[in-house]
Write a structure and sequence with these properties.
Blueprint: H1 3-17, H2 29-36, H3 47-58, H4 80-91, H5 103-119, E1 127-131, H6 134-152, H7 157-160, E2 169-173, H8 178-186, E3 195-197, H9 207-215, E4 221-226, H10 238-247, E5 251-255, E6 280-284, E7 296-300, H11 303-310, H12 340-374, E8 379-381, E9 389-394, H13 401-418, E10 424-428, E11 431-437, H14 445-472
Parallel strand pairs: 2-3, 2-4, 4-5, 5-6
Antiparallel strand pairs: 1-7, 6-7, 8-9, 9-11, 10-11
Helix pairs in contact: 1-3, 4-12, 5-12, 6-8, 6-11, 12-14, 13-14
The structure holds pyridoxal-5'-phosphate.
């Protein structure tokens, strides 16, 4: 049998049964290491056997991220149509570095870029780089910011680097996503040198504090805000931040890995008011657009700034026409997969209304989960559910944070062990919380009742055990 046929059958068998399986890997990492351990083969194996072996060994260690009740981290469910387009990207064997290497991939990417700007309603002249995700997107966009800010001060950062350059003051919120700090580190800004701006109880940047801190610094300024805080889903006050950026001649960048999709929904759009005044934005495809990993977009208003920071040229590479959208001038890589294809397919399949309906549904389901669980004594919804994120504290005020952490961990262990839903935890305002991210394109309304029942049952059981333990003590 043809090797593609084998892969196809294994993929279809997996995807068509995943919703009936427990929402957890059957084997853990150590068990999987043992399964895959082995010496480098001296001789070859027929292709079809290789793929069957990979699937036979690997399927038991897969995390069912495509399951309708996967609520872990913030991960999309890889919609079938975009997975299929991604297969073509691989099967066609295209290298999306440049037009001449693949006219199709370059053209599809260009159209998808335009569609993204349209659905997200960002400046149509902005450049869009197809990167691996928001981490790489933050890196690319912030590289553009660094170059542009220093150029205004007469410094050519692309040519001369940072040694001896004017200091760029970088402002991030105290609840910034870790990937922004990584990107700043790659760019030579250093995590420790950033100015951290105070936030409110939802993780929103306090504009007053930003204004005060900006006023205290002389020189080029880079302000990094966020749409969709990783725990609470909150949005920074963009309109006010844009005013402050304008007053300070600062570059305003928005880390909007999932939150920017709120802009596609008319009734959620106000959350993003003012965001269009920023200079750069980052958003993922592999989150709310349900594009398979890895897929993100670095969007920069000043296309020239992004191109200068990412440009690559050599005599063996085709010269770039000024009118060209040169794919490799917009991302850190030269050779890369044709990431525009799955994005094009997802947008083609859903259309503007399909994206809006999905995002709206997920936010409504998140509110339902929160409203249901808020009724349960001992469960506290710690965030205002403005988007798709719900964070839950388990235990009572008198228990103390350490005790509540033990209780929350016990509830999470229990629900995950039961395999009815998958959730993960994080620390928020000193509390270990259960994070529920409603972002699976596969979810149906009834999955919410199943999820809340599972959490209620686990909490009931953990409370009973905790009470009897206390009684014994
Ligand atoms: C706000 C925010 N920024 C950045 C990232 C990093 O995104 P990625 O994992 O796609 O690099 C995430 C991931 O969840 C995020 O939520």
């Amino acid at each position: 049998m043809d090797v593609f046929e084998v892969a196809y059958q294994r993929a279809v068998a997996y995807r068509s049964s995943v919703a009936d399986q427990p929402v957890k890997p059957q084997l853990d990492y150590q068990q999987m290491r043992a399964r895959f351990a082995g010496r480098l083969p001296e001789t070859g194996t027929p292709d079809c056997d290789v793929i069957n072996e990979l699937a036979d060994l690997g399927e038991v260690g897969l995390m069912p991220i495509t399951h309708p009740r996967f609520f872990g981290w913030v991960m999309g469910a890889s919609s079938p149509v975009s997975v299929a387009a991604d297969w073509l990207a691989s099967a066609w064997g295209q290298n999306a570095a440049m037009h001449s290497a693949t006219p199709t991939a370059a053209a599809v990417e260009e159209t998808a870029a335009g569609w993204l700007l349209e659905i997200l309603d960002l400046p149509r002249e902005a450049a869009v780089g197809f990167v691996t995700g928001a981490t790489a997107g933050n890196f690319a966009a912030l590289a553009a910011a660094r170059g542009a800010l220093l150029r205004r001060d007469g410094w050519n950062c692309e040519a001369d680097g940072l040694f001896g350059a004017p200091q760029v003051h970088v402002f991030v919120s105290d609840d910034v996503h870790a990937s922004v700090l990584s990107a700043l580190r790659y760019l030579g800004f250093g995590e420790r040198r950033v100015v951290r701006v105070d936030t409110d109880n939802q993780g929103r940047m306090l504009a007053r504090d930003l204004a005060r801190r900006c006023a205290a610094c002389e020189g080029p300024k880079l302000i990094i805000a966020q749409a969709g805080q990783i725990n609470t889903g909150s949005f920074d006050p963009f309109a006010t931040l844009a005013d402050i950026a304008q007053e300070n001649g600062a570059w305003l960048h928005i880390d909007a890995a999932f939150g920017l999709w709120a802009r596609a929904v008319p009734d959620l759009r106000t959350l993003t008011d003012g965001i269009e005044r920023a200079d750069s934005w980052v958003v993922d495809g592999h989150k709310w657009l349900q594009v398979p990993f890895d897929s993100g977009y670095a969007i920069v208003r000043d296309a020239d700034a992004l191109q200068r920071s990412m440009a690559i040229s050599a005599s063996y590479l085709p010269a770039r026409e000024a009118s060209d959208r040169a794919p490799s001038y917009l991302v850190p890589e030269l050779s890369r997969r044709a990431r525009g294809l799955p994005t094009w397919a997802a947008l083609r399949s859903l259309g503007r209304s399909g994206v809006a309906a999905m995002v709206r549904q997920h936010c409504a389901l998140a509110r339902r989960i929160a409203a249901d669980l808020a009724q349960v004594p001992g469960i506290l919804v710690m965030n205002d559910v403005v988007l798709n994120q719900v964070i839950l504290r388990f235990g009572h005020d008198g228990d103390g944070a350490e005790r509540r952490k033990v209780l929350a961990a016990a509830v999470m262990d229990r629900v995950v062990a039961d395999g009815i839903i998958f959730v993960a935890g994080a620390t928020w305002r000193g509390e270990w919380v259960m994070r529920i991210s409603v972002i699976s394109g596969a979810i149906a309304d009834e999955d919410v009742s199943i999820a809340t029942s599972a959490i209620r049952a686990a909490w009931r059981q953990v409370s009973i055990e905790a009470t009897s333990e206390t009684a014994i003590r």
